Amino acid sequence: MSVTAVIFITFIGLLILGAPITLSLGAAALGGMIVSGKPLEGLVEIAYTSVNSFPIMALPAFILSGALMESAGISRRLVAVAESLAGPFTGGMAASTILSCLFFGAISGSGPATTAAVGMLMIPAMTRHGYDRGYAGAVTSSSGGLGVVIPPSIPMVIYGVAASQSIADLFIAGFIPGIMLAVGLMAMNFLQSKRKKYKGDGKRLSPKTVWVTMKEGFWALLTPVIILGGIYTGFFTPTEAAIVSIFYTLFVGIFIYKEIELQGVMKALESTTWITGRVLIIMFTALAFGQLLTINKIPDLIAQGLLDLTGNLYLIWVLIILFLLFMGMFMETLATIMLVTPVLLPVMVSLGVDPIHFGIVLVCCCEIGFATPPLGENMFIASGVARTSLEDISVNALPFVFVSVLVVFLIAYFPTLTLWLPDLLNSIFQ
Fold first, then answer.
1. Is the model's pLDDT at 19 over the cut of 90?
2. Domain annotation covers residue 283
3. Residue 4 is assigned to a structural domain of this protein
4. Which of 23, 93, 3, 12 is nearest to 282 (CA)?
5. What are the contacts of 219-223 at 24+ separation with CB within 8 A?
6. Could you give the number of structural domains in the chain?
7. Of 258, 236, 172, 207, nearest to 84 (Cα)?
8. Could you tell me if residue 16 is inside a domain?
9. Domain limits at 382?
10. Would you call 423 exposed, middle or buried from its count of C-beta atoms within 10 A (0-12, 13-18, 19+)?
11. Which tens digits make up the pLDDT trace of 68-108?
């Protein structure tokens, strides 16, 4: 049996049996190395290489920073700013949730973290204002994915390492697509709220109230400015920015808001350790799997198969986006990125697609995966907070998934939406 057959049969067979993605990838890589006669010590080398990277250090730092922000009172103040801006309008509480996810995503870098932090505050508020629990959960899970598109973004760090691309450029490239996704979600929320007769929060839009909440949340709103401003002015690298964000969060939580406590810090450290460990294990097994695919020229075969099928870039984008959305339904985001990057990136580059552009489309598709069953992590979190079934949330999430997919196609077909801002800032600062 060929190495390729062993790899795919082992991988798919274990997935069908319900094995975790990490075990499936690792066992497939191990089987491939045994059949090919390669020394198994190579797996140790791959494990070391997968984590021996300066940019990877940003991963636990951004996770810890996002975990600390809830204890520091930053997330609550961001939600207050969002409520003052969107609350009075039709579907205002749900619109506030989307805005809150947009703001919190700019400092957390994680979809599930954004969903949990915002959902704990906004889902009970929405249900108190007459929103259906399923709808409240659907809005939160759908907009929680903005946390991985709006920079800083943990999946962008992983893609940048896997594709050897500038993480700073990926961060900046995510701004416009992230805002487009948020606008699309808010537009769909307005239409759905009109149909379901969800009114505003009963308060008038008050410039004074907006000013007061923004003044109180000034230090929270300043976080992304410091992180991204420092990266693009060359004051520090993305990895150093992640460390800066930790110390900034601690400074604000201890000396300004005076809300952070030792118990909250310990809980954030525990959460960071668990998430980082899981991510690094996935990276190791996915990298080993990907290297075996590359050695056996699987990406070349897939590229040739796609080009034989059609040479039309628009049709190829359709096939790839649908494939990524399908994978997002069954696989974790980081595993998806590590698995498809070495396979699909060479195909798209050969067709003239910029690697930064492809990375943003990939991350946006993963963002949708957070809110699509059966694996959607955000849906599980929102279901627990809203105390309703996954089926109820899934049905209510369909319109939001639809509009998100439309936005992803716009981003794919118009590269300028992604590349304009990084090119502009590169021309200014370089």
1. no
2. yes
3. no
4. 23
5. 219/74, 219/252, 219/256, 219/257, 220/69, 220/73, 220/74, 220/75, 220/77, 220/78, 220/81, 220/103, 220/107, 220/252, 221/78, 221/81, 221/103, 223/69, 223/74, 223/106, 223/107, 223/248, 223/249
6. 1
7. 207
8. no
9. 39-429
10. middle
11. 877 787 777 877 777 777 666 677 778 888 888 887 777 66
What residue has token string 């379901």? Answer: 196
Query: What is the model's pLDDT at position 430?
Result: 61
CA-based nearest residue to 138, from 402, 392, 404: 392
- What is the rounded distance in angstroms from the CA atom of residue 264 to the CA atom of residue 74? 13
Distance CA 188, CA 138 (A): 12
Q: pLDDT grade, residue 374 (50/70/90)?
A: low
Identity at 122, one-letter amino acid code: M
Q: What is the pLDDT of residues 288-337, one digit of tens each?
A: 777 777 777 776 677 677 777 777 888 989 989 988 888 777 677 777 88
Q: Please check whether residue 203 is in contact with residue 88, taking contact to mean a CB–CB distance below 8 angstroms.
A: yes
Give domain status of residue 219, yes or no.
yes
Q: Report in angstroms the alpha-carbon separations of 273 from 7, 255, 268.
A: 31, 26, 9
What's the pLDDT score for residue 108?
A: 66
Q: What is the largest CA-CA distance in the chain?
A: 72
Identify which of 306, 315, 360 has the alpha carbon closest to the alpha carbon of residue 337: 360
HEC letters along the chain: CCHHHHHHHHHHHHHHCCCCHHHHHHHHHHHHHHHHCCCCHHHHHHHHHHHCCCHHHHHHHHHHHHHHHHHCCHHHHHHHHHHHHHCCCCCHHHHHHHHHHHHHHHHHCCHHHHHHHHHHHHHHHHHHCCCCHHHHHHHHHHHHHHHHCCCCCHHHHHHHHHHCCCHHHHHHHCHHHHHHHHHHHHHHHHHHHHHHCCCCCCCCCCHHHHHHHHHHCHHHHHHHHHHHHHHHCCCCCHHHHHHHHHHHHHHHHHHHCCCCCHHHHHHHHHHHHHHHHHHHHHHHHHHHHHHHHHHCCHHHHHHHHHHHHCCCHHHHHHHHHHHHHHHHHHCCHHHHHHHHHHHHHHHHHHCCCCHHHHHHHHHHHHHHHCCCCCCCHHHHHHHHHHCCCHHHHHHHHHHHHHHHHHHHHHHHHCCHHHHHHHHHHHHHHC
Crossing angle of the two packed helices 111-128 and 377-386, in degrees rounded to 10: 30
Q: Which residue did the predictor score with more confidence, 177 or 62?
A: 177
For tokens 């406590």, the residue is 261
pTM for the structure as a whole: 0.78
